[in-house]
Records
---
Amino acid sequence: MHILAGLILAFTMAEAARADESVFLQSLEGKWEGKGAVRVRINAPAMTVSCAFDSSTTPSSLILEGNCTGLMVISRAVGVNLTSSGGKYTGSYTGAGTGVARLAGSRRGNAIHLGILWAKNVNGDRNAQITMRKVGNNGMVLTTTDMDPQSRKPVITSEINLVRN
């Protein structure tokens, strides 16, 4: 009887987590615009960018596609494609210039924390982190952090503040 009760509890918790992720993902759907700063490399100066994204969701996925433009000349297509399963997120990121990067992580509170595995070395290795943090009902902050190979300290390489239109 204890085993049956444990299985029912585990199934109920898994269904609640799936429903919770569905509601969270749906809250990120829409058209987003904003500004921020991006460093192509840790030792490069930050460049101010303006970004516009469209995001669409299903109960278990998020697609965020758009463009970021800096210096009124440089424009780059950017995309995130995520799937949620069992409280974990996996997917891909395009836009870094090194090829398609793999993403994997989980959500804590109002933020999805993802490890990035770049297609090629960036700043001395292939690893970085990106956080997609929901701010209130109509805000989102995308922050990418990489490790400085010399100091071994984390450096914010991009931070983009978005508002839903």
Note: Strands lie at 30-38, 47-58, 61-70, 74-85, 88-94, 101-108, 111-122, 125-135, 139-147, 154-164.
---
Amino acid sequence: MVHTFMRMVSPPYRRKEVLRIFRRIVGPIGVQPGCLRCFCFSDLEDDNAFLFLSEWRTKVDLANHVKTHEFLELLAAMDLSVQTPVMEFKTITETAGLELLDQLSI
């Protein structure tokens, strides 16, 4: 499983434009083959800061995604950032739920 994280800060006067991009792509990305989840979040302390997340079943699914128009739109939104945007790809080999807390004796 691969998680993608993109963080950016839009200029205040382009916030609505960035939101339009995210609203336009989150649904289509979420139904692409291999996409398990796709979300966009706004920072609680900075309305212009966004975190765009997606989760992919395999690296092949992610590789297919990065060839799509929606991924190009995500890159275009990143270009609007007033700070250096961050994009990370994390390969997940194990996932646990609340049962992990029992195992950790918390």
Note: Helices lie at 15-30, 59-65, 69-79, 99-103.
